[in-house]
Amino acid sequence: MSNTATLSAEAGRVTGSPASRRLRAADRIPGILYGHGMTPVVLSVARSDLRVALSGPAGQNTILTLSVDGSSYNAVVKEMQRHPVRRTVAHVDFLRINMSEELTISVPVVLAGEAKAVLADGGLVDASSDTIDIVTTPANMPSEITIDITNMKPGDVIRLGAITLPKGTRALGDPDLAIVTAIAGSKAEVATAAPAAAEGAAPAAGDDKSKS
């Protein structure tokens, strides 16, 4: 499976803010592993190792084989807390998973193709959401959801219920939720503005005649 990676962790870290700061200073990230009824395990991972493990196409949704002091667990990153200023990872939560059970993830939306009719009108195609929440098993987990915008015209809307999802997945949310919108451009604005301008010009001409 291309969306998998291995990652080594060390268990038994000392908890608390001072200890966590020392770990980060040593380029290690404090974290925790939990899920499936297991007793949570506090751990730490090397910052560089985590970066490499999540560098594939699945990103944070990568299925990890997490090695902790001789034991291996299938896991995904549930949450990454970041420093408010530097935006570096300050803490990571790993969720143990069962490869045959469903889980909910957020998958990036990628727009494919070129909406020539929209561009010719001076408009643009706007993704209302960067991600779609889906339910899937780890084996069917996609790295992205691709939406073809080639045939879109100004004013068109692609809604959640109309998106073709990979096999073995289903979307969460309102099927009528707008995911991609084709926004009309300058030509449409000119077309609607022209009649208004013409209507405004007629009284002006009449006024001139009344004054003569």
* CATH H-level superfamily title of the largest domain: Ribosomal Protein L25, Chain P
Overall average pLDDT: 86
Instruction: State which percent range the strand residues make up.
Output: 35-45%
Runs in which pLDDT lies below 50 for 5 or more consecutive residues are 190-198
Major sheet details: 6 strands, mixed, barrel
Oligomer: single chain
| Strand arrangement in the largest pleated sheet | 1-3-2-6-5-4
Number of strands: 13
- Global shape: elongated
Number of helices: 4
In CATH, the topology of the largest domain is named Ribosomal Protein L25, Chain P
Give the termini distance in whole angstroms. 85 Å
Order of helices and strands: EHEEHEEEEHEEEEEEH
- The CATH class of the largest domain is Mainly Beta
Which CATH-level-2 architecture of the largest domain? Answer: Beta Barrel
Determine the structural class based on helices, strands and strand pairing. Answer: alpha+beta
* Helix share, percent: 10-25%
Q: Number of folding domains? A: 2
Radius of gyration: 26 Å
